Amino acid sequence: RVHGELQCSLFVMSESEVQALREQVAQLQQRLATLETASAGRARIPAAAMSSEVVDSNPYSRLMALKRMGVVENYERIRSLCVAVVGVGGVGSVAAEMLTRCGIGKLVLFDYDRVELANMNRLFFQPKQAGMSKTEAAVQTLMDINPDVAFEAYNYDITSVANFDHFMGRLSK
Known about the structure:
Blueprint: H1 15-40, H2 61-68, E1 82-86, H3 90-102, E2 106-111, H4 134-145, E3 150-155, H5 161-171
Parallel strand pairs: 1-2, 2-3
């Protein structure tokens, strides 16, 4: 709008550009359906706060025991922390899983690779995730483990000049 008037522009696209957009939309719809299917069977809803009550239904009760034993002063603080994991392979996927199980506030995942069937013997990915980006598959799996954690996933090589500024900017937030 310009001074209360509606401003319109004509945008012309070639048939190949339209087809490329249609293909992108189809891919995004497929990704959304995959994520919705994965989250449909989620065992629990996110917890509003960490509870120290020792019951089988409390996912944090064993971890809160650390606070009761004096090992940790304020375990609840973990929900305010953000950790970046660069590379969701052998070490990164295990680190991301453990941080998720502990209830970290946010995980920011970076990887440029795709899940392959050859990864099944050493990573936490599932055969049905073969072909997905490792970050997308990791978020899918980790959301099922702990819906209390917020996730950001970036599927690119952080060492390339084109992506380095975004990577550094994301780390400084």
